[in-house]
Design a protein that fits this description.
By secondary structure, the chain is α+β, with helices and mostly antiparallel strands. It has 5 helices and 12 strands. Strands 3, 9, 10, 11 and 12 form a 5-stranded antiparallel beta sheet that branches. The two termini are 18 Å apart.
Length: 225
């Protein structure tokens, strides 16, 4: 997880919903992964799967939320304490993400277990729940999210097109250009760190002869696709 200070600049998350099934000694472990940004969204998946798999014995869950992964929860749902939710959470936290770094967040995992008649023991349950989530993550589509600094820059109508092209060529994301009565306003996005901000300011000054300044519009998280 790339960060400046204690704040993450980017992280990975599940792209939508993904399901995977594992059988261990006749017990079925159905793992459902879904993107969630709030505890309410995470718990709604658990409730949904309780209705969908109403005849299953266990609906164990774990989720990690926030760019800095500050919210982490797990639930054994009737399995022996520490044998389901915690191993699932550990698998989420250690799972390789888009760039190979363990930075997965905003993800909830629910493992629905149908008991197969053979006791797995505490160690067997830990391995089964951990493996269920790990295998699901290995085949799940992921997307990387990045925190970007949003900016606006005014330019004369006749110069806006050239400025837009030059900024794009230098790696600045141009989100759009609005033409007003007296000037054009370019909406831009750059990486939210000091190095990127300095580089942008210097580039803008060079392109406009120091005649344009950027207005800071705050930050926003965007999916990189």
């Amino acid at each position: 997880m790339t960060s400046t200070g204690s704040r993450a600049l980017r992280y990975s998350t599940v792209d939508g919903e993904h399901r995977h099934e594992l059988e261990v000694k006749r017990s079925r472990f159905i793992t459902v992964l879904r993107r969630a940004e709030t505890e309410e969204e995470a718990r709604s998946l658990v409730a949904q799967l309780r209705r969908e798999f109403h005849d299953a014995r266990h609906h164990c869950s774990a989720f990690v939320l926030g760019p800095d992964r500050t919210t982490q929860r797990s639930n054994d749902d009737g399995e022996p304490s520490g044998t389901a939710g915690v191993p699932m959470l550990d698998a989420l936290l250690k799972g390789s993400a888009v760039d190979g770094e363990a930075d997965l967040s905003d993800t909830v995992a629910v493992v629905v277990r149908y008991f197969g008649g053979i006791l797995l023991g505490a160690g067997g349950l830990v391995r089964a729940y951990s493996e269920s989530v790990s295998r699901a993550l290995a085949s799940a589509p992921l997307v990387q999210r990045q925190r970007l600094r949003l900016l606006s820059v005014e330019a004369a109508h006749g110069a806006a097109g050239r400025l837009e092209n030059d900024l794009r060529a230098s790696g600045v994301a141009v989100l759009g250009t609005e033409y007003g009565p007296s000037a054009a306003t370019l909406r831009l996005a750059v990486e939210d760190d000091d190095v990127a901000a300095t580089a942008f300011s210097e580039r803008l000054a060079t392109l406009t002869g120091g005649n344009s300044t950027a207005v800071d519009l705050g930050t926003s998280w965007v999916d990189l696709r």
